[in-house]
Amino acid sequence: MPDPGSILEMRGVHKWYQDFHVLKDINIKVSKGERIVICGPSGSGKSTLIRCINHLEEHQQGEIVVDGIIMDADLKHIEQVRKEVGMVFQHFNLFPHLSILDNLTLAPVWVKKMPKKDAEEIAMTYLKRVKIPEQAKKFPGQLSGGQQQRVAIARSLCMNPKVMLFDEPTSALDPEMISEVLDVMVELAEDGMTMLCVTHEMGFAKKVANRVIFMDEGEIIEENEPEEFFNNPVNERTKLFLSQIIQH
Amino acid sequence: MVESANNCDKTLPNKAQLKPPNIHIGVIPWLHKNLFSGLFNSVITLLTMYLLFLFIPPLFNWLFIDAIWTADNRNACDAEGAGACWAFISSRFPQFMYGFYPEELYWRPNLTGIFLIVLIIPLFIQRFPYKYYLSAFILLIYPFIAYVLLHGGYWGLEVIETAKWGGLMLTLVIAAVGMMAALPFGIILALGRQSEMPVIKSVCIVFIEFWRGVPLITVLFMSSVMLPLFFPEGTDFDKLLRAMIGISLFQSAYIAEVVRGGLQAIPKGQYEAAQALGLSYWKSMGLIILPQALKTVIPGIVNTFIALFKDTTLVLIIGLFDLLSIIQQANSDSYWLGFDTEGYIFAASVFWIFCFAMSRYSIALEHKLHTGHKR
Fold first, then answer.
1. Chosen from A69, A103, A106 to mutate, greatest number of chain B CBs within 10 A
2. What integer pLDDT is reported at residue B234 of this predicted model?
3. How far apart, in whole angstroms, are the C-alpha atoms of residue B199 and residue B192?
4. Measured between beta carbons, which residues in chain A are less than 8 angstroms from residue B288?
C-alpha cells in the first residue's frame, strides 16, 4: 500500500532496453517537500529513472506510485500523473512556433480547460517569478539559453504541479547562464516544492538537497544527506566519482 | 545574478560601430565582374546576346504587335503577315472557361468563385479575429454551397449535369476538391504510418505504397472503366465524382509522404515536452507537432499541389473536358483549323499563372510563419 506521507514511491523498479538492464531494483521514497538530487556518471540510468516517473519511459517491473496513483499502462493514470508532475529538460524543449506566453498557457488551457484569460494571468505571475515578464510576446528562438530554461520552468509551474522533475537542467547552458537558472530553482525549493533533480551542480546539491542519491550502472549505490554524502562517502565508486568531479 | 548578465555589455565601453566597407559598385564594374570577366565569359555573353536578338523580337512581334486580337471570322488571321490569332481564343473564350455549361447560367459558377474569394480575403487580414471559424466554414460548409450552386437541384436551381461542366471551371473544381481532400487525408495517413499500433501502421503503409505505385492514368482508367463493373447494373455513379475520388486518393498518398518527412524533422524533445505537460496524443499532434511539421514541409506540399493542378489535365482521357481538353477540341474545329499553337500557348499561360501564384503564396506563407527559431 502507498504510504500516506510520501508523494512519490518507487518499489523494486526494473527497466530494460532490449537486453540491456538500465534500472536495477530501484527503491525510492519521497516525502512532500523533499528535495532530492540524483547524480552519477553518464549512462548510469539517472535520466531514465526520472523519466519513468512521468512515463516518458516505461518500466517493466516494480511499482511507481505518484500521489496515490499507481503508474501502469492505463492512459488515464498516465495523464493524471502528468498533470501533477512537472518536468524540465536538458534542452528546454520549448515550443518554437508559439510565443513565450502561449508556451505557458497551452497546457492550462488545453489540459486543465482553464479560460485563456486566467491562464494568461497565471502565466504572467510565473514569468515574473522567473524574472522575465518582459519577454512574454517573444518567441523561444529570440531568447538566450538561460532565459529559455527559466521559461521552461515557468511552463511547468503553470500546471501547478505537486512534484517537479529536472533532467540535467543546466547541462546545455553556457557557464554564465547556469546561475540564473539555479537561482530560480533555489527559490522554488525554498517555497517548499517537491523536487527530483538530476544534476552535476554539486553546489546546488549542498545548498538545497535533503538527500543525494548516487547511481552507477543502473543501481542506487549510495543515498545520504548532502553533508555526509560529500564529506564521508562510503562506497568506493562514490569516492571515485566525487574525486573526479571536484578535481577540475 | 540575472541582472548582472544583462548589464554586462552596457558597462563595457562601446566601440564605435563601423560601417561595412563601401560595396556599392557602378554599372561598368558590374558588367565587368559579371559578364566580361574573361575571354571565355565575354564570348558566351556576346553569343547569348546575339541569340536573344535573333529570337526575341520576332517572337514579341508575333505574340503582341502583329497579333489579331479580335475578329468575327478567321479572314484577318489568314492575311499575309498576321501574327498570333487571339481572335480564335476570344471567340471560344466562354467555352474555355465554362465548358458546356448553359450560357444563361454562367452566373452560378461566377457566384461560386466570387463567394470563395470573398470568404478567403479576410484570412489574409492580420487582425481578423474569426479566422478559425471562417476556415472551418470554407472547409466544411462552403463545398456544399458550391455543389448546390454548380450542380443545382436545390433551392429551385436547375440541375446541370456534371457532363456539361468543363473548361477552367472544371479544372479548378477538380483541383480544389483534390487539394481539400488530399491534405487532411494525407496527414492522417502520415500519422497512421508513424503509429505504434501495428494494424493501423500496416494499413497506412499498404495504402500509401499502393497509390504511389500506380500511375494516375491507370487510376483514372480504373475509376471510369473498371469501377462500374463492381456496382450493380444500372447504378449511375457520376464520372466526375469517380475521377475526383481517384485523384484525391492518389494525391493523399503523396501528401502523406511529404508530411511524414516533416514529422521526422521534429525533435523528439517536442513530443516529450508535450507529453510531460499532460497533452493527449491528438492534442499534442494538433497543437505542437503538426503546426511545426506542416510549416517545414510547405514547399513539399505546394509542390504536390502544383503537380496535382497540372495532373488534372489527365482527365481528358476519360472524356472530361477540362481546360486543356476543351482547347484541344476547339483546335479540331474545322472552321478554326490551324491555330493549335495559340490554343496551347493560352492553356500553358493559364496553368502557369495559377501554378506561379501558388508558388509565390507558399513563399509568402513561409516568411509569415517563420518565428526565427532555427536551431
1. A106
2. 66
3. 9
4. 95, 106
CA distance A185 to chain B (A): 13
A25: left (phi over 0), alpha (psi -120 to 50) or beta: left
The confidence score (pLDDT) of residue B375 equals 42
B283-324 pLDDT, tens digit per residue, is 999 999 999 999 999 999 999 999 999 999 998 888 888 899
**pLDDT beyond 50 at B1:** no
Strands (DSSP E) contained in chain B are none
How far is residue A168's CA from residue A201's CA, in Å, rounded to a whole number? 9
Pair type for strands A61-66 and A35-39 = unpaired
Indicate yes or no: CB of A106 within 8 angstroms of CB of B270: no
Supply the DSSP symbol for A142.
G
CB pairs under 8 A between A and B: 82
Q: Which of B2, B273, B295 sits opposite A89 (nearest CB)?
A: B273
A214 within 8 A of A229, measured Cβ to Cβ: yes
Instruction: Spell out the alpha helix ranges (H) of chain A.
Output: 46-53, 75-84, 100-110, 116-129, 145-157, 175-190, 202-208, 226-231, 236-247
Interface confidence, given as ipTM, is 0.91
